[in-house]
């Protein structure tokens, strides 16, 4: 077993339960903005459509095809137009309300705190995220994750986005360690696993749904629950 000294974590979908927190927020917005009055979709359909649109926009953002403003301004417009609303029916302020509310949600994946408490005395723990700086710190504070981590690297703060190896190299330089001393844990195969591999860092693919994608190189490790990290580290 390799002797790691530092552990890198992705935040959304790995520690902070983005889907659960986002779903709660979407359901609240459905009521707050009285979307039922249009009679064109229910709350469940609203969430499913939003999830579909948001996932694809984030993929475009990670690939550098759109910027932060375009992502934030278009996801609710695309969602609601796709559900049958007309331009003049789009509720003003719904995007801003989502950005304000969602980061304050506190759901994390099972065993998050238990595992972080286990790892913290043994390793330097750090966050590497493509999420936006203004909301990532709110998420971590609200869910009481801040105190576990030494460095919190966002794509905005370093100028690169995963899977660009330079984002990982930025963190390696900040903490003064070599790639083979580190382990990256994340849910996004392209951004977290391929990005870390390209930077010479071992990887843990967090895959709670146990999905199998196209043929691709195996990660160093694969887990379906964060508690399995105790068997690795």
By helix and strand content, what is the structural category? Answer: alpha/beta
Overall spatial form? elongated
Instruction: Please outline the major beta sheet.
Output: 6 strands, parallel
Per CATH, the superfamily of the largest domain is HAD superfamily/HAD-like
Low-confidence stretches: none
Mean pLDDT across all residues, rounded? 95
CATH architecture tag of the largest domain:
3-Layer(aba) Sandwich
Strand content: 5-15%
Name of the level-1 CATH class of the largest domain: Alpha Beta
Radius of gyration: 19 Å
Strand order of the largest sheet: 3-2-1-4-5-6
GO molecular function, one term: 5'-nucleotidase activity
Organism: Pontibacter oryzae
Protein name: Noncanonical pyrimidine nucleotidase, YjjG family
InterPro entries: HAD-like_sf (IPR036412), HAD-SF_hydro_IA (IPR006439), HAD-SF_hydro_IA_YjjG/PynA (IPR011951), HAD_sf (IPR023214), PGP-like_dom2 (IPR023198), Pyrimidine_5'-ntase_YjjG (IPR052550)
Please give a structural write-up:
With 233 residues, the protein is an alpha/beta fold. The chain folds into 2 domains: 6-17 and 108-232, HAD superfamily/HAD-like (Rossmann fold, 3-Layer(aba) Sandwich); 18-104, Putative phosphatase, domain 2 (DNA polymerase, domain 1, Orthogonal Bundle). The protein is 45% helix and 12% strand. The protein has a 6-stranded parallel β-sheet with strand order 3-2-1-4-5-6. Strand 4 (182-186), helix 9 (189-198) and strand 5 form a beta-alpha-beta unit. Helix 1 packs across helix 2 and helix 2 packs antiparallel against helix 3. The longest helix has 20 residues, at 43-62. The protein is elongated, with a radius of gyration of 19 Å. The protein starts with 5 loop residues before the first strand and ends with a helix. The mean pLDDT is 95.
